[in-house]
Design brief:
Layout (H helix, E strand, L loop, with lengths): L1 E5 L6 H12 L2 E4 H14 L7 H10 L2 E4 L2 E4 L2 E2 L7 H12 L1 H15 L4 E5 L2 H5 L5 E6 L2 H14 L6 H17 L12 E4 L5 H21 L1
Parallel strand pairs: 1-6, 1-7, 2-6, 7-8
Antiparallel strand pairs: 3-4, 4-5
Helix pairs in contact: 1-9, 2-4, 3-5, 7-8
The protein binds cytidine-5'-monophosphate.
Length: 221
């Protein structure tokens, strides 16, 4: 079974997707981390980020794994490096390119083939897995999302302010919503889940209940 979780930064997708996958013993795909990792590798290998065919080729060649909450690119732990502001900003050019997105789609489908998967990103339900059995679009108000992201940044030991986080989030959301290919949007058949005022555990429990309902439907059909 494939479950897609899409939505803007700070809506609580990553922590929910990871926890759900762990609870169910399923695989987990963090597709934002995939875009970030390829961006990092391109910069390291001197591949211009606007050279879409070469970056797309890199997408096909790079082996990305999610293990114990860490992200490995060709066997190397890149979890910390891919979360820097430099990579967050540079990822934009990579994620905007149609060739790169097409390669990502192929790789993501290959990674999920024949498995039970929770996958999170922007376009997982709308573009990459249109036949997923459960699609959820997570949202929260801009204020709530900025507060959560700030708490994460402080947890990672990075100094930041609410204004800074809110500003960079607004810029990123705008880019994600308006890109010509693979723009962030809920699939027509997605369940919309507004997470303002919900704790992390409540979000996870709600998603687990939605999955259980789909599995029950499957069992009874
Ligand atoms: O989710 P995260 O913030 O790690 O994603 C990093 C960037 O990768 C996002 O700003 C977005 O532009 C891009 N992305 C994407 N499609 C996805 C996941 C992420 O374009 N499925």
């Amino acid at each position: 079974m494939i479950v897609t979780l899409d939505g803007p930064a700070g809506a609580g997708k990553s922590s929910a997707a990871r926890a759900l996958a762990a609870r169910l013993g399923w695989c987990y795909l963090d597709t934002g981390a995939m875009y970030r990792s390829v961006t990092l590798m391109a910069l390291e290998q001197g591949i211009p980020l606007d050279d879409a065919p070469r970056v797309a080729d890199l997408v096909e060649r790079t082996v990305i794994e999610f293990r114990d909450g860490r992200v490995l690119a060709d066997g190397r732990d890149v979890s910390t490096e891919i979360r820097t502001d430099r990579i967050t900003q540079a990822t934009r050019a990579v994620a905007d390119a149609a060739d790169v997105r097409a390669a990502m789609k192929r790789v993501q489908r290959r990674m999920a083939e024949g498995l039970d998967v929770v996958t999170e990103g922007r376009d997982q339900g709308s573009e990459v897995f249109p036949d997923a059995e459960l699609k959820v679009f997570l949202t929260a108000s801009a204020e709530e999302r900025a507060r959560r992201r700030l708490a994460e940044e402080l947890e990672r030991g990075r100094a930041s302010s609410l204004e800074q986080v809110q500003e960079s989030q607004a810029r990123r959301d705008e880019g994600d919503r308006t890109r010509p290919v693979g723009a962030m949007r809920p699939a027509a058949d997605a369940v919309l889940l507004e997470t303002d005022g919900m704790s992390r555990e409540e979000v996870i429990d709600r998603l687990a209940a939605l999955i259980a309902a789909r599995l029950a439907e499957r069992g009874s059909s």
